[in-house]
Amino acid sequence: MNWxxxxxxxxxxxxxxxxxxxxxxxxxxxxATFDANFAALQAPGPAKAAAPPAKALELEAAAxxxxxxPQWTFSxxxxxxxxxxxxxxxxxxxxxxxTTEVHPPVPNDWxxxxxxxxxxxxxxxxxxxxxGFPNLEEWQARTTPTDKNSHPPFLAKLKMKSFSREPxxxxxASWTGDAFGINTSDLREPTQFxxxxxxxxxxxxxIVEFAEKYEPNQYGTDVDVSELTLENQETRERLKLVKxxxxxxxxxxxxxxxxxxxxxxxxxxxxxxxxxxxxQRIRYKLIxxxxxxxxxxxxxxxxxxxxxxxxxx
Length: 313
Hints:
It is built from five helices and 17 strands. The protein is of the alpha+beta class. Among the domains are: 86-152, no CATH class; 158-164 and 251-309, no CATH class; 169-246, no CATH class. The strands form six sheets. A four-stranded antiparallel sheet has the order 14-15-16-17, with no helix packed on it. A hairpin with a 2-residue loop joins strand 4 (170-176) and strand 5. It is elongated and about 155 Å long. The mean pLDDT is 84.
């Protein structure tokens, strides 16, 4: 270590001389190979094909088209050899789209407009967009049979199958002087003894009139058929109860059929609310029942009456 310190300058000089010698060697080597590398860079590459003249390309395209045979195209009803599509009409005779309505009452043009299979016998009952409404109902409502977002209102699937009147719950059971015994038809409530002008507990009715009556039966014996008149305090409708007879309730019941997706039957009492799938959020209320229709309202629009027709088939 002492020797290195004493001869430091000699060691540094020797290292510098060695470095310069190495640099000189590499410079000489690069100069010796320069000519060969430069000649390689100047060597010509592979020859490229000459671009064809523009006219040659056009001639080739024309020749290709000539080699392809022409194709017949036609967008009308007629075919190439048959002037018009033929069908067997409802009367069993041959018919064409121009002379016969294949699926009355739906026009042929409407079926063709939506590319529906007019040749299928059941095309009117088909549901191509799967919205729950067949083609016939889509045509009747002027909606698009191939768009599931275009369909008739769901209420169109609701029909009144029948209507009936339920037995009235109250029975005029007996009377003594000016007191009248009122029972329930199921006998689940205790007898109420009331007078004219009294309200019947648990109901909307009040006794407003009494008429004593007798009629002979088949054996000639007089039978008490006295009448007790009740009045609904909300509607002012009156109902007569005959002694010991179960009367018919003035509250009508409508029996409905709903055929969206699947057939479903249900009954609704007057003033009762109900809903229909898939619009469960909309509540309807039955307000009247007539022999040929039921009348309902949307509870959100109570002033707009909706007629539900009687089921005819």
